[in-house]
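Long-time lurker. I teach an intro course on protein structure, and each term I like to show students one example going from raw sequence to a predicted 3D structure in token notation. This year I'd like something fresh instead of my usual example. Would anyone be willing to generate the tokens for the chain below so I can use it in lecture? Attribution to the forum is fine with me.
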Amino acid sequence: MHCPKCGTQNSDDAQVCCSCAHVLTCSETERRKPRFQTSKSIVSAIFLAGLSIVLAFIVRPTLAFLAALLGLLLLIISIVQTIRGKKKLTIKHIVFCMFIVFEMIFLTYWRIDAAPIPNDYTIFDLRSAPLLWYGTYHLLNSLADKNDDLADAPAIGLSSEDVENLKEINNIFKEKDLQTISLQLQARSDEILSMWQNAEKGRDVLAKLAVFPEIADLSEPDLESIPSWLENFRRLTLLHRAYVCLQSCQGNHETAVDELIRLDSIGKKMSLNVRSLIYKLVCLAYFRINIETANFIINNPETPNEMIVLLE
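-- Reply from a regular --
Happy to contribute to a lecture. Here you go:
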């Protein structure tokens, strides 16, 4: 560093001239220091490289590849500018260049879809009941009403008034006290027995299903599809709970246990072959209702021990 007063050469970090004792100003000292500036091109390249990683996971690999490619071009521009300025390439240029190149190779392979294998996996690979029992699937569909907008349920024999009464009776089971439930069921016994008779058509379908060792599910596996028979099947399940608990209250323990065991067997056979998530949830709800019904029978002090043993 030259002294501006006498021209004497001083060291770069000198604060005072060694010849004339002239105080060297900060601006004069800083002028001699090399300035390290980060290229705008390399900053943009780093940003695009990070953006391509995000895009690869939330959008599509193709868009991420284009972002990485643009980042590589900007990085090359930064390297060319560095070389033209007769400056040395830094380690950051090399590291980021290798990173983006490897990222583009990875995204290139990610974008490649494998060719389909003919008949590699079809719907027939899903587990289902043997062909001999495919008729059970059609029995289940016979529970569906042709018009879902109707207030009644003609497919299982319930009128619109029966449907409304069933909803009210179902609310009885929200009580926590079993004695309260028992009293309210007996108070509405006529309605329950009437609905039980009216639903003979639906009960006959369940009786036929109970004979088969398995119940087939031939539906397309879809997260959004809801079986058309589901609502009437739910109504029959709730009606069975009310009827079985009423029979237990009235001392008809054998009838109550037999009906519950048959109903529970249908759910177990259905759960073996279910395909859709909705169907699986139906089975879980079905088992929960049956467990609550069994709990009601077991906690009835008048239930004989031999009947309780059958429920185990």
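Some talking points for your students: The chain has three domains: 1-35, 40-111, 124-311. The chain is about 60% helix and 0% strand.
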